[in-house]
Structures are given as structure tokens and as C-alpha cells.
Amino acid sequence: MPAPRLLGVHLNDHLAGAAVGAELGHRMVQEHGDTAYGNELRNLATEIAQDRRALLRIMGEVEVSARRYKVYGAWLGEKLGRAKPNGRLLRRSGLTLLIEWEALRSGVAGKALLWRTLLTAAVDDARFDQDRLEELRQRADRQTRTLDSLHARAAAGLLSAPESQLSGTSAARSG
Question: Helix (H, G, I), strand (E, B), or coil: what is residue 175?
């Protein structure tokens, strides 16, 4: 059985991260829901919010209280993170989408590690539902693959030079 204090700290740290992920996912749906990424993004945001609720249920089952100050601090940090310099004074940079995909990807990777950690703890602690934890782990793995695909599409669209520019550059150099 995990040490109660350490388990509480670990779960609350992940709850804070889950608050950031849910907020970021929600905001991304608002900003990019009508783009080619919209359907996948809406599904991801819904699942990320569901995973946060699943974590809260698990915390209740193992009698770990949510530390609201951590959640509020993380929420505030997500809001302040929007104010970072991006090379533009009043509007978002095209690279912001890549950074957001990367932030979500990092959060999902951390969440997958949480589910793996809890699966390890479940071997000795019957309070954890191993089947549910395995479902959550598998879902995090699917979310990772989806985010990798979305990131690759966004990177190709933002960072790849159009074919006409590439051929024009080659012709200019050879001529």
C-alpha cells in the first residue's frame, strides 16, 4: 500500500496538471474547433475532462482530499502562460498551435505515467480498480498517438515551405 502522504501529494500534483490540461483543451476547442483539427480536438478535450473527473473519483476512493490551492495555482498558471512573448504584439503566433499541441502531449504523457504508477500500486492496494486504470492507460496511449498526428499535421502546415517557393529557390540558385 502506498504511503498515504506521498500518494496524496502525487495525486494532487496530477490533479493540478489535469486542471491545466482540461482548461487548455477547452480553450483550444474554442479557438480551433472550426478548423481541420476540430473533431479530433473536441474528442480529446472531452476525454481530458473525463480523465480529470476519473482522477477525482479515484482520489475519493482512496480517501485523498483535493488540495484546491494546487488546482487554482495551476489554473492561474495556465492563464498567465497565455501572456508569453510570441513574436507578435497583439495576436497569436502561428507557432502557438504547435506549442499548445506539445503542452497537451506532455500532459497526456504525464497522465499515462500516473495510470501506470497506480497500476503498480494496485497490485498491493485493493482500493484501486485495475481494470479501470488499464482502460485509462490505454486511452492515454491513444490520446498520445492522436496528438502526435495532430502535431505533425500542424508542423507540416506551418513550417514546410510551399512547393512553389522550393522550386523557385532551386531555380534561382542554379541560374
Answer: coil
